[in-house]
Automatic annotation (TrEMBL):
<keyword id="KW-0472">Membrane</keyword>
<feature type="transmembrane region" description="Helical">
    <location>
        <begin position="73"/>
        <end position="95"/>
    </location>
</feature>
<feature type="transmembrane region" description="Helical">
    <location>
        <begin position="246"/>
        <end position="267"/>
    </location>
</feature>
<dbReference type="GO" id="GO:0055085">
    <property type="term" value="P:transmembrane transport"/>
</dbReference>
<keyword id="KW-0812">Transmembrane</keyword>
<dbReference type="Pfam" id="PF00528">
    <property type="entry name" value="BPD_transp_1"/>
</dbReference>
<protein>
    <recommendedName>
        <fullName>ABC transmembrane type-1 domain-containing protein</fullName>
    </recommendedName>
</protein>
<feature type="transmembrane region" description="Helical">
    <location>
        <begin position="143"/>
        <end position="163"/>
    </location>
</feature>
<comment type="similarity">
    <text>Belongs to the binding-protein-dependent transport system permease family.</text>
</comment>
<keyword id="KW-1133">Transmembrane helix</keyword>
<dbReference type="InterPro" id="IPR035906">
    <property type="entry name" value="MetI-like_sf"/>
</dbReference>
<feature type="transmembrane region" description="Helical">
    <location>
        <begin position="107"/>
        <end position="131"/>
    </location>
</feature>
<keyword id="KW-1003">Cell membrane</keyword>
<keyword id="KW-0813">Transport</keyword>
<feature type="domain" description="ABC transmembrane type-1">
    <location>
        <begin position="72"/>
        <end position="268"/>
    </location>
</feature>
<dbReference type="GO" id="GO:0005886">
    <property type="term" value="C:plasma membrane"/>
</dbReference>
<dbReference type="InterPro" id="IPR000515">
    <property type="entry name" value="MetI-like"/>
</dbReference>
Amino acid sequence: MAVIAIALILVVWELVKVLVPANGVSIGSTRVLPRTDDGALPHVWSVISVLGQPEVSVAGSRSVGAALLSTGLFSFGLAILGFVLGGVVGLLLAVVMQRFGLVERAVLPYVVLSQTVPLIALAPLIVGWGGKIAIGGQPWQPWMSIAVIASYLAFFPVAIGMLRGLRAPSTASVELMHCYSAGWWPTLLKVRLPASVPHLVPALRLAAASSVIGAIVAEISTGTAGGIGRQIIVFSQQATGDSSRLYAAVLAAALLGVVVTALVGLLERLLGRYAGRRTTGQQ
């Protein structure tokens, strides 16, 4: 189905290119359909063919495809780091909120409110604060700011999904543990955590995609070179009459999100024993 979906997108892409005029469609002074010339919407085969072209007009320079692969790997590492940091923070926060109702009432509104802060405004602040921090005598590096911003987006779905999952066990299951004189910790390990998996896995998928978005936006906002976010800016500045390189970079960024999200699918397979459960919370 994924292959069919991609094929349909490409077909629609080319149909728009053929059917919509190059200057788009306007009603009066209002443009209702965008331009479809090569500067706005290149052909699919132009985007693919540009991958083999040299990145710069210098002998021995790497190809556009090699540049996207290198920058994609850089962003991939930062996205994974942000995903792990955000996931750990979200999990711990959910466990604490489930354990202490007072903490939940105090913290949960701010967890939700945190996602209303635009990354473009947040990125310079994190970079500025990071410049005043030294870890083990080592100065704060720009890539650390990117990882923090990526984790900032990733922790929210994990915290909310995990909190809902920890509350998923049926009342009978929890009361049974109480009858066995089991404390909070055994109940968490044997009932609440297994029951939370069906809620946690979708949250991790969202967190994985969010970490990629956070890493790319942070690279653009902070001006950090080496990642695919900065490469998008470079290719957009080169898009004079032909935006094939820009579309290739954007598609590479989308593919990066698919790869990171697919890794969560591997985790779901490892947790297959619990992934199909919903609210029983039973072993």
